[in-house]
């Protein structure tokens, strides 16, 4: 039985969105060489928030040139000076975090609870962390005097728009590179607001350039001959395309791609905590998380007890207005993504898995998908193999730890995994055998700027975060 | 000079700890720098390459699962075996690369020393590249390097022995297994290395050595869905691009060809190129009356 809460909406008056945005190149907003404008909508209401510019290949070239020009001075600055710019940015983000949280929730559809408590604090922390590296690179373990690569072309996804920007821009700038960044086509606004933060911080012009647009803009950026480094977070299919594009060039590449994370619950797990972790693992950000725990592997002997508790818990989740501080589940980011989730869930039913959702009223407008759980799932099922990138959990069972490990690793991906057990030696033994870049034991979806993040196998290569994250932007 | 007729060696592949001929039954003529016949080396086929991947995959669990100390001991044992065969390798390297006996001997010495260098790395690389991360919360967070899996190695074309060892040793020191394509023109030192590995304590399948046409063998390895990474050291520019594109299909880690002076002491980048970083989070909680809590 769900509690009734009075609505507690966060005010959107704190954000002032302009009706239309140009491209941020060489320190100022400029018009495109083409005339194409796109609209960005609020996924929760389908209201148009603003128009933004579809950058052409010519615009991308202009941005790369600005970044190239800025590189000379930026890379020659003492690290301690670069550090201070980044510290300024971190502080300004903290100061403006309420505004940015509301903006992100409007543009992305995720609950304000998440942008306020997860995205924004992590964004500021990431800049703060890498700021401190800028004058300490000699001690980072890559030899003395490691050099920046040059111009970094960065393409980021829509699920954590500002956080992914921070993951890309902070280490790039700390190491002395300049950047041209393309935000996702459905969530360009926080990156455009970030341009204003660069202005406030007094960042030299051309060090950060923001080009908005769809995949065409991204393709032009990745293929640009004067880009020295390509960093991409997004789908595995696009990641492979990018890997082909940069083949045979000197461009350094890092890819952070899809996942099909296994969340393994052993019979000796603290079940109440496990339920919370499972919910966090697959319903955080509506499951639109590359490291989501989208496959629940539960030991047969506790399956019934766990699923009963999980269903009870799911029935208390509150879906609705993302700006309401009580909301647990917000909107799906786009109509396109909703269609993909819907199609895969239907496929799950068609292939014989059993579908369950709590009673849950969906708002009349906007893009919504109820929390969904599939049982009777086998490893051959599409919903156990393909990344759904939505609030859909596939439940599989196992009998022995070996079987759990085998099933967890039976995927082309290798980004994340979770282990729930009270037995320390079992946790360590299983963590050791999982082929995944991030393993959470008795927790899930924890992130920190000091903690390297990235995948095995087709989840991509390279690490973001921590000392490891510097390597992607250094000539080492 | 004795007028005794010498016994030739039949050079064979080294796959899964065994010495098969190419399944294709093909061989090609290997000559020295003055075009004198040295041997008929196996001209491996795509099928040989696939068989080698199967052997390497089978060996991966065991090899990556041994302790780093043990891997160091095993690699050191290889150096011991190489030391005992210095004369043989000096002759083979001199023939293969057209070097004087003394220069070839220097190459072989450097090669043995390179094995020793990597043998010592097995139980240190994790401390250099991994460690605890000071996350802002009640968690013990540890990053550790892990081998990426099966690595295809296109060995350098010119440096048939020192170059070969300089690219193979770092791959297996960290727990990967390797499918190695020997220098096309000078494959004999690589095939002899297989004999050394077989008489050391390296488990079968950890290193698999193929001889033949580089392009013919590298293509199926670059496209192979059960190969995790590829070192393109011995590929020319055009081939390297083609292989890198094929490698994108399952997102293999790719080490592009680069100019290397194999006499120089290497850095650690040939090891880190084929290492993954795994980060594990453990709640530390706090000690309440009831013991640990989350």
From TrEMBL, chain A:
Residue stretches in coiled coil: none
Keyword Oxidoreductase attributed: yes
Keywords tagged on the record: Oxidoreductase
InterPro entries: Ald_DH/histidinol_DH (IPR016161), Ald_DH_C (IPR016163), Ald_DH_CS_CYS (IPR016160), Ald_DH_N (IPR016162), Aldehyde_DH_dom (IPR015590)
Aldehyde dehydrogenase domain sequence ranges: 29-475
Full protein name: Aldehyde dehydrogenase
Protein species of origin: Streptomyces rubradiris (Streptomyces achromogenes subsp. rubradiris)
Taxonomic lineage of the native organism: Bacteria, Bacillati, Actinomycetota, Actinomycetes, Kitasatosporales
UniProtKB/TrEMBL annotation, chain B:
Residue runs in coiled coils: none
One Pfam family per UniProt: Aldedh
Residues annotated as domain Aldehyde dehydrogenase: 24-254
Domain of life: Bacteria
Endoplasmic reticulum keyword on record: no
Keywords noted in UniProt: Oxidoreductase
Protein's UniProt name: Aldehyde dehydrogenase
